[in-house]
Amino acid sequence: MKTNTLVLAAALLRRPDFEGCGLAPYRCPAGYWTIGIGSRFLASGTPVTATTKPITLAEAESLVMQRLQTLNTDLQNMLRVPVTDAQRAALLSWQYNVGTAAVTGPRCSASSMWDPLTLLPTSSGYGIMPRWTAAWSYSRD
């Protein structure tokens, strides 16, 4: 795991047209209470609610980096071929947004996003990433 990959993934997520950054609780497009850079849970593991106190920017960045480290381990176990830092960052930001269950679930593995034999992101897979929106969640179907 390279730190610059996680920093790049966090920067992608922080863009206003992705997760953005809200230091007070807000509802994400999928209807979950979130805080910071799309975090549904605080560092203590407590779920974010409407009454959660605002956090600092440093806390928001820490939350997203901790989550990305965990997701990076999961992603490494899924990939069977090398990917570039930029490809890994894009996959991590997507995985952060839709969740590992969605990435590893039957809908994803049967889709054009992943080649089911190698779990290599296909060149056409990157083009369909925008279809996997923040409002879709494997667990909510």
What does this structure look like?
With 141 residues, the chain is mainly alpha-helical. It has 6 helices and 2 strands. Helix 1 (3-14) packs across helix 2. The radius of gyration is 15 Å and the shape is globular. The N and C termini lie far apart (32 Å). 27% of the residues are buried. Mean pLDDT is 79; it is low at 133-141.
Q: Can you summarize this structure?
A:
The chain is mainly α.
Q: Would you tell me the overall average pLDDT?
A: 79
Describe the main β-sheet briefly: 2 strands, antiparallel
Label the overall shape: globular
Q: What is the strand content? A: 5-15%
Judged by helices, strands and strand pairing, the structural class is: mainly alpha
CATH architecture: Orthogonal Bundle
The stretches of 5 or more residues where confidence is low (pLDDT under 50) are 133-141
**Number of contiguous helices:** 6
> Number of DSSP strands?
2
Keywords: Antimicrobial, Bacteriolytic enzyme, Glycosidase, Host cytoplasm, Hydrolase
InterPro entries: Bacteriophage_GH24 (IPR051018), Endolysin_autolysin (IPR033907), Glyco_hydro_24 (IPR002196), Lysozyme-like_dom_sf (IPR023346), Lysozyme_dom_sf (IPR023347)
Protein name: Lysozyme
GO molecular function, one term: lysozyme activity
Furnish the topology, listing elements before pairings.
Blueprint: H1 3-14, E1 22-27, E2 33-36, H2 57-78, H3 85-98, H4 100-104, H5 106-109, H6 123-128
Antiparallel strand pairs: 1-2
Helix pairs in contact: 1-2, 1-3, 2-3
